[in-house]
Write a structure and sequence with these properties.
β1, α2 and β2 form a beta-alpha-beta unit. The chain is about 45% helix and about 10% strand. By secondary structure, it is an alpha/beta fold. It folds into four domains: about 190 residues, Rossmann fold (3-Layer(aba) Sandwich), CATH 3.40.50; about 170 residues, Response regulator (Rossmann fold), CATH 3.40.50.2300; about 50 residues, no CATH class; about 260 residues, Up-down Bundle (Rhopdopsin 7-helix transmembrane proteins). The chain is rod-shaped, with a radius of gyration of 52 Å. A six-stranded mixed sheet has the order 7-6-8-9-10-11, sandwiched between helices. Pfam families: 7tm_3, ANF_receptor, NCD3G.
Length: about 800
């Protein structure tokens, strides 16, 4: 069909330059696409009426329908280059009607077919729809995309998915090179932004009736996958046919008797899909696309265009406009009386219907994105040609003054100017449309990405008016991290609690991280809590209890020492080696007092004195016990006639035993302090929620050497006392020493595992308790029986009783 422009512009100059527009229709016209024709007519009307642009030149245009068919497209393209209505290649007798440029169709395939022929004649093509995918053969084709490039849409799609946290998606594309390029580009981007897909399905384009069954089977498969999956967001990349397939998809259950229940779905469509401009607008349901999101081309509000469209009248313009009658009938679902051919009752078109009353899916009174691209295309060509026609050095060479002989040169110059204009257009932006049953408010500053005001969103009833969820796995809350399921995409994961000592503070963290050294995780492991400083103090029950016990045993020891000093000349005190008893009591006294070094905040001095003081005084105590036992054994051995042991009886032996044994322990302690002395330290690890102030032993080996040497002395004392247990009772305390050494060894054998298993201040408490228990065992086992006799049974504390007991 030809929308004749001669009737519109006949009053202008006889010098004409023509542009051509391809439109697209399938098996029935698309009412909304009629605005594309009006946008071109409006732009050319404005230019022809503007004396500032191309004066003395008149632009006209032809419009051809490609019918979405390659053969028809090639034929129409050849008509551009031939005389009107005479298809003779390379021959045109209309020397005043020069083809200046072609505005391509909606689909990339149509534009590519047109470029195949136009490139031979170097005629530029401006594309207001999808740009063809270039290859080696088509790399030199001369066409210019009048819409923003696809990468802008790709960025918008990713931003939209991330904003609504739709990370588990399905992908539907056409089965063509354009869609393959889309997948190759977007799949890595999706993976990088942690968006994964449950499936990818390609839709074969319907070509003839033989392919209908195959398309039906494909539709069944896609319907089952879409409605049966846990994916609620689908990205659709394609062109106008994709929308027809999508709306046909909702009839699959009734055709194939499928019982899978339909669900609410968010369709995210690229601008090429043409959401509202599809065939069978009135007879097909739009339920399946409720809540769809579609990117659209940038547009502008032109009040003059709105008035121009409103003035369209099918009665007055029928002879001038070959499209308006068909459009009017399709838009208002009526028929003109002169076209009634049957007796079936139909609504009659009056021509007075109001275009403003039509819903947006049928027709929009304001300029749409594609119409605005056509409008800009016409002005781009006009300005390019105007720049050439007004240049000083080219003015005399203009072909229009010489009957169009330099038309090819004009075209080449137009191409050069269009290359600059095309660069500016490619820097434009994309918009996100407000669609069926979903009300959105979008703010997109030029220097920012996609911004959405969520407070103004009203979701469709299919989603229960709440934001749809499209994720493979529920979010991992703080305190958990993600672990990808084996054999599943990376967004399908299990939520694993953070390991001990680690936290995660946000949802869906891939890894947990450790707190700082002076912080520890709370019980939910979602934030770090400051650690408290911990050491054994007098202010807490444990420290206070141990300090009280130490003071109590100190007082008891002082009391026992006082009793022995007061009764130092009594037989029982003398018989049990008075001097060694004093040494033993004083060493136990110092041992109990040394426990106070273990309580309180560790300092440099206290750390140096703790273990060494304890080791020395306890070694003196055990040495004196050993000396007691050896003295008893030697004394009885010396009573035998002719015994040589008499010369060892006396203070010299006991003093040498005590001094020599103590000097060995002193040497060990001096070596310890000189090599690796203890020092104040901070333990951040053993107790997770506390900073433990402690004394670092410096050398663990030397610490266990001190303990080991005391154990060695205790073992010797136990052995000698056990051997001397059957000596006469009046002089013999070996039984008590045996029992006291048994208590001592039992306590310190239990100390080692308890010490190693305890943490923090309880390590110190274990050692204090061991010292108290072993010291109390020595004090009670050795001295309580003697105090009992001295204090409560003084009548037994005389020489006669001792001799009688011996007999």
């Amino acid at each position: 069909s030809l929308f004749s422009s001669k009737n519109i512009s006949s009053r202008f100059s006889k010098h004409w330059y023509f542009l051509s527009l391809f439109i697209l229709s399938h098996c029935s016209p698309v009412a909304k696409n009629y605005q594309h024709i009006l946008a071109m007519a409006f732009a050319i009307k404005e230019i022809n009426e503007n004396p500032q642009i191309l004066p003395n030149l008149t632009l006209g245009f032809y419009i051809y329908d490609s019918y979405d068919n390659a053969q028809r497209t090639y034929q129409a393209t050849m008509l551009f280059l031939s005389s009107v209505e005479r298809l003779i290649p390379n021959y045109s007798c209309n020397i005043h009607n020069n083809l200046l440029s072609v505005v391509g169709g909606l689909d990339a395939e149509i534009s590519l077919h047109v470029s195949t022929i136009l490139d031979i004649y170097k005629v530029p093509q401006l594309i207001y729809g999808s740009a063809p995918l270039m290859n080696e053969q088509s790399a030199e084709f001369t066409f210019y995309q009048m819409v923003p490039p696809d990468p802008l849409q790709y960025t918008g799609i990713v931003s939209l998915l991330l904003h609504f946290r739709w990370t588990w998606i399905g992908i539907l594309t056409m089965d063509d090179d354009q869609s393959e390029k889309f997948l190759q580009t977007m799949i890595p981007v999706f993976s990088k932004r942690e968006i994964c897909y449950s499936f990818i399905e390609k839709i074969a384009k319907f070509s003839d009736i033989d392919g209908l069954y195959g398309m039906l089977q494909k539709g069944v498969k896609i319907y089952n996958q879409v409605m049966g999956s846990n994916t609620n967001a689908f990205v659709i990349y394609g062109e106008s046919f994709t929308m027809i397939f999508l709306r046909w998809l909702q009839y699959i259950p009734s055709i194939e008797n499928i019982r899978i229940k339909a669900k609410g779905i968010v369709w995210i469509m690229t601008a090429q899909v043409e959401l509202t401009a599809s065939a069978f607008q009135r007879s097909w349901s739009t339920e399946i696309i409720h809540g769809a999101l579609s990117f659209s081309m940038p547009s502008a509000y032109l009040s003059e265009f709105r008035s121009f469209v409103a003035k369209q009248n099918p009665i007055l313009s029928r002879k001038k406009n070959g499209f308006i009658s068909q459009f009017w009938q399709d838009a208002f679902n009526c028929v003109f009386s002169y076209e009634v051919v049957s007796d079936v009752p139909e609504d009659i078109c009056t021509g007075t219907e109001d275009l403003k009353s039509l819903p947006a899916p049928i027709f929009e009174i304001d300029m749409t994105g594609h119409s605005y691209s056509i409008y800009n295309s016409i002005y781009a060509i006009a300005h390019a040609f105007h720049a050439i026609s007004t240049s000083r050095y080219k003015h005399r060479a203009m072909g229009v003054r010489r009957g169009g002989k330099n038309h090819k040169q004009d075209i080449l110059q137009v191409i050069q100017v269009l290359q600059v204009i095309n660069i500016l257009i490619c820097q434009s932006t994309m918009h996100l449309s407000m669609l069926v049953s979903l009300h959105l408010h979008f703010i997109s500053p030029p220097d920012q990405g996609l911004t959405i005001n969520d407070d103004l969103i009203t979701w469709h009833n299919l989603f229960n008016q709440v934001q749809p969820i499209s994720i493979c796995t529920e979010s991992c809350y703080p305190g958990f991290n993600k672990k990808v399921k084996e054999g599943k995409p990376f967004c399908c994961y299990d939520c694993i609690p953070c390991p001990d000592g680690s936290i995660s503070t946000e949802n869906d963290k891939n890894e947990c991280f450790k707190c700082k050294d002076d912080y520890y995780p709370n019980t939910r492991k979602d934030f770090c809590v400051p650690k408290i400083v911990s050491f054994l103090t007098y202010k807490e029950p444990l420290g206070l209890s141990l300090a009280c016990l130490a003071h109590s045993f100190t007082l008891v020891t002082v009391l026992v020492l006082g009793i022995f000093v007061k009764n130092h000349n009594t037989p029982i005190v003398i018989a049990n080696n008075r001097d060694l008893s004093y040494i033993l009591l004083i060493s136990l006294l110092l041992c109990f007092l040394s426990l106070l070094l273990f309580i309180g905040q560790p300092g440099k001095v206290t750390c140096l004195l703790r273990q060494t003081t304890f080791g020395m005084v306890f070694s003196v105590a055990i040495s004196s016990i050993l000396a007691k036992t050896i003295t008893v054994i030697i004394a009885f051995m010396a009573t035998k006639p002719g015994s040589r042991m008499r010369k060892w009886v006396g203070k010299k032996l006991t003093n040498s035993i005590v001094v020599s044994c103590s000097l060995i322990q002193a040497s060990i302690c001096i070596l310890w302090l000189s090599m690796a002395p203890p020092f104040p330290d901070v333990d951040m690890v053993s107790v997770p929620e506390k900073i433990v102030l402690q004394c670092n032993e410096g050398s663990v080996v030397m610490f266990y050497c001190v303990l080991g040497y005391m154990g060695f002395l205790a073992l010797i004392s136990f052995t000698t006392a056990f051997l001397a247990r059957k000596l006469p009772d009046s002089f013999n305390e070996a039984k008590f020493i045996t029992f006291s050494m048994l208590v001592f060894c039992s306590v310190w054998l239990s100390f080692v595992p308890a010490y190693l298993s305890s943490k923090g201040k309880y390590t110190v408490a274990v050692e204090i308790f061991s010292i108290l228990a072993s010291g109390a065992g020595l004090l009670s086992c050795i001295f309580l029986p003697k105090c009992y006799v001295i204090v409560l049974r003084p009548e037994l504390n005389n020489r006669e009783q001792l001799i009688r007991r011996k007999e």
